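quick one before i forget lol
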Amino acid sequence: MRVLHTADWHIGQTLNGWSREAEHRIWLEELAQVVAAEEVDVLLVTGDVYDGISPTAAAQSLLYRALRRLKDVRPSLVTVITSGNHDPAHRLQAPGPILESLGVHVVATVRRQGGTIDAAAHMIPLPDGDGTVRAWACAIPFLRTADLPGLSFTAEEGRASPIVEAARRFHALMGEAAEAVADGLPVIGMGHLHCRGATESEGSERRILIGNEHALPHDVFPEIFSYVALGHLHQPQSLAGGRIRYSGSCFPLSAAEIGYDHGVTLIDIGEGRLEARHLPIAPPARMLRLPARGMMDLAQLEEALGRIEVPDDLEKDLQPLVYVHLEATGPASVLLAEAERMLAGAPVRTAGIRVSRAAPEEREAPLVASLRETTPEDLFLAAFRKTNATDPEDRHVAAFREAMLGE
């Protein structure tokens, strides 16, 4: 049988005011084509389906249409969705009884019975195209502090991290249920967390903090899990010899993700074997950093924008998203205004503009050494330089002095 592992769709995301809906619509259709072409039996979505806890009606509609489309192209498809830290867990889970008619199972909260964790209720059978169960999923949603059994922050000498201990107990409980239910069949664990040793994407993912921990060791996952399908980190990557894997985000969601080999992970399960491989899916729209490294001035920006070519009929919401890093050759406000004017006239969407000094000659000193050793004007000058990466002009100093006289 074939299982497709994906995560971190972030439906509903906007970037600097630009909607990503058109990109998501195209990417989800590409996903449907992969499911059909590869004859996928099971689709796993490991969290961050939505970008925020209050998804719009349009975002929710986009998800439900995608699930309907996946079922149309592959009628035997079974889909298992778990929640991420961005998701509204209860809202994600609420339509579960209806979605089950499409073969979609949603596990967005830890299931309990009589106040006790019902680990067996997290086990989802995974059938092949003929309906024969070939494997099981242990569907674990994003875990919050209240989900971890026996969690205590009481200080004890020589004690290991209470978060790691509690997480280990939780996953051991899941492993015991998996062993009892699966009856020798392969088990795929699902989770949404940061595993130690994995690479973060700067500015893309929120650090999940419980206590003082934001990452768990990979050995919290019991050996009964033949494969661990994770979400949260946006770069496709594997740990523990490939047994633990992040499929990565659907397409670049920030500048840090430019250059990632975005796609999904295809898992083949046969007699006594489980093999995983990456399948790339091209982003629906380009994301560019100008320049690719370092900084540029306004003349170089104008030249770079002139080299960007897009089809005349390309809709605005699919034009390239551009991050610009300018060298501070003048007041930042002036540079920003001119850069915004250039970008508005180009066939691109502005994702962000940053202005920086080329290279500070010495380590930056604090704005205030001592109130006795400075004046209000000194503070203004230092703050202006820090904010604008250049010295103020005479008119700026004059305006400050007038403001001070007015006081």
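fyi The chain has two domains: 2-280, 287-406.
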